[in-house]
User: Fold this.
Amino acid sequence: MYIVAIGWLWVVLMMAVTESSITAGILTFFFYGLAPLALFLWLVGTPARRRRRSVVMPDEEVRQQDGGDAGRNE
Assistant:
């Protein structure tokens, strides 16, 4: 997946270099390259983020059971 992102950025960079002004080149790179690519990577990464969030770590599980309160033993 990252090789496609790198390739896309390369093509957009070459498009930006051929623009007539610096401002047009920067806007081309941002609106054709960075913005759509960031959105795409965020959408594609959503299932992985959900899986990571749903996995409960053993240490967190212990804290959830006893509430992390030592009470009078502290």
